[in-house]
Amino acid sequence: MDAYLNTVKTWQSDFFDADTRKEIEELQNNNTEELKDRFYKNLEFGTGGMRGVMGVGTNRINKYTLGKNTQGLSNYLKKVYAGEDLKVVIAYDCRHNSDTLAKTVAEVFSANGIKVFLFSELRTTPALSFAVRDLDCHVGIVLTASHNPPEYNGYKVYWTDGGQIVPPQDGAIISEINNLNFEDIKFDANPDLIELIDKEADESFISASVANGNFNAKGKDDFKIVFTSLHGTSITAIPEVLKRAGYSNVTIIEEQAKPDGNFPTVVSPNPEEPEALSMAIAKAEEIGADMVVGTDPDSDRLGIAVRNLDGKMEILNGNQTMILMTKFLLDQRKAKGMNGNEFIGSTIVSTPMMGKLAEGYGVEYKVGLTGFKWIAKMIKDFPNQDFVGGGEESFGFMVGDFVRDKDAVTSTLLACEIASNAKANGSSFYKDLIDCYVDFGFYKEKLISLTKKGISGAEEIKQMMVDFKENPVATIDGSKVVTVEDYNTATSTNLETGKVTPIDIPTSNVLIYITEDGTKMAARPSGTEPKIKFYFSINTTLNKAEDFKTVDAELEAKINRIVSELNLG
């Protein structure tokens, strides 16, 4: 008998509610393949915590899988902080069941004698990260599946520093969870330990966001913004932040302003997808706006569109936005006088141009694995250094260290400050970016994501990674591969000398090829979605801004050749 059926049987005991048992019985009778997919494994923590499809089963998000997580986390907290009065803060987004799942998580914590601050309504992820330290909590939880489709939900865990859990906490917590049976979950809540929070917590976060993202840019009265929350949580913060910073010409896309877990006006509520911003861009063209900003459901990612050299709205990718934001912050620091302790941070699959920026400004550049928890860890690991800002290619950015996760609220304000100031000076966000390319090198990136669902999809992704490792690419667009970085073994191999150098980064299932001409290709399975991702970065010199269009077209053609060569198009 398949092993998963033993697990199914345990879920038919009286501990599980009648609706759960009934749904399992229906699956047994009508859809055994679906039953297997729901029970053949346990959901695991990835780069963004636990995330998955909602429903009955160990491989789904539901009150029992999240309850077990919370019970294990409660047990771990009591061991690590024995004798302390434990406190947690919980937020949730617009997704179906987020509010009820958040309530369940709060009840389990309270049943374990832990004080809970629970946001009374949906709030942004950066507000949760900020609240952990603001309320002096041991842990923060946010119920969200970020930009995933409507059937998903998730559970992110934040530690005392406001950053997501990292080693060794994550492994120790997972071990604690795995040692539990579902019957060990304490669901009997203590209402006296659950306190609803809202206005005071909102005021603390919004004030801090304005303080960190407002640089008194010129030209705010003449700067037009179109903003869309894509049915998510940022509507609770961004309009107020922009207002307090002095922006009065803000047009909100009302059709997308109401939080809605069905995300009815978009195919995907992901600002990485051009379609998500189409309604906002149409409005911007209609009213002659200068910038479009859109955020994902939990408001940690932002996508922006600005007017290009032809005056048309163009969506920038996460690398482009990150470069100009980081340069602007470095310029502000430089104007005040550097203290020599500054650093910026990014990830191994983001643009290498961040390293060139660091060189140009004489600051340190720290690189981590994919996922913002690694950037937050840099801040925690180097308390005597000064984090200026940083981000990753997947449309996330962090302004300073007052929030310890990607923060689309403050980053939206920062983007507007840059663009408003540029316009007042006779330039633009786009032109300032081109000037960056002239100064630091023209880097162009592209991401290819292949979706592979279910058990067979997971096996296919696994085999693709094995194939790339065992049958390495020798050349990319005619340029010889000279370095292979294998993060599974944390080694970098120089193919010309054979020298193997350790990489001082935790192991991860990522493979990176670097060629003689500086072309970089990275491959990695997503930690939060059934996808395998390929990241491409190429670069050349841009001698003067007037050459931008010609050189951009050459780089675009090169990337297209590479994608075709690797059969990924």
From TrEMBL:
InterPro entries: A-D-PHexomutase_a/b/a-I, A-D-PHexomutase_a/b/a-I/II/III, A-D-PHexomutase_a/b/a-II, A-D-PHexomutase_a/b/a-III, A-D-PHexomutase_C_sf, A-D-PHexomutase_CS, Alpha-D-phosphohexomutase_SF. Pfam families: PGM_PMM_I (PF02878), PGM_PMM_II (PF02879), PGM_PMM_III (PF02880). The lineage of its organism: Bacteria, Pseudomonadati, Bacteroidota, Flavobacteriia, Flavobacteriales. GO terms for molecular function: magnesium ion binding; phosphopentomutase activity. It comes from Maribacter vaceletii. Its cofactor is Mg(2+). Belongs to the phosphohexose mutase family. GO terms for biological process: carbohydrate metabolic process; purine ribonucleoside salvage. It comes from the Bacteria. This is Phosphomannomutase. Keywords: Isomerase, Magnesium, Metal-binding, Phosphoprotein. The keyword Transmembrane helix does not apply. PROSITE patterns: PGM_PMM. Residues 44-182, 207-305, 317-436 form the Alpha-D-phosphohexomutase alpha/beta/alpha domain.
